[in-house]
Request: fold
Amino acid sequence: MTTNRRKFIAISVAGASTLGLGVAIAPGLRLIEVAQAEGAAKGASSAVRWGMLVDSTKCTPGCDACVKACNEENGIVEQVADARQGSQWIRKVDLKNPKGGATHSLPMMCQHCAKPPCVDVCPTGASFKRADGIVLVDRHICIGCRYCMMACPYKARSFVHQPLTTQAPEVPRGLGCVESCTFCVQRVDKGQKPACVETCPEGAMLFGDLNDPNSEISRRIAQEKSTQVRADLRLDTGVRYQGI
Reply:
């Protein structure tokens, strides 16, 4: 889609909304393209690799502010009888050192791997990695086979088991699709931080460009010890942890 066509669509959607008309103005037009008609023209750049650094020593046990922020930002509000069937893009994990007994609480989400196994096993290409390192699911071609869920060593993906009646305008979701943390890509593309990072009351989560040696996240990783969960898999995760 050209820049001119994106602008035309954005203007047309605005006009249609003002007049109370439908916004299905082009066959096959994706919701995400409408929501980001202007910003999407810039595209993702391989010069940037978005990542997150979590300081587990600042993460308070029992605090779920990041989970609530994620749910609110991405429209994850559905209720299910079986909690195992609910969508969860980020969850809190409690760790205990069997030797010293030290405990840590940390958020666990899609690790946005440089070599994502979910992408390798997807038969349709619905699971993909953007040039800037963000791993996403194209719900238009996801067939719900759940191979990616089995391949993910972090149990970071969820399957939508029921019809959705309430959605965030910029975060299209759908019955029968797999989904996971997107680093709040709709915010990142506007120059904002993920909702969990902005909401964390202890400032335990840091987001930035791993490719920029002068970024705060790169400086922290260079100066202080950090860990990749399941580093033995050599997936080169975009999410790093301190204190574990």
About this structure: The chain has two domains: 3-42, 50-242. DSSP finds eight helices and nine strands in the chain. The beta strands are 50-55, 90-96, 103-109, 127-129, 135-137, 158-159, 178-179, 205-209, 239-242.
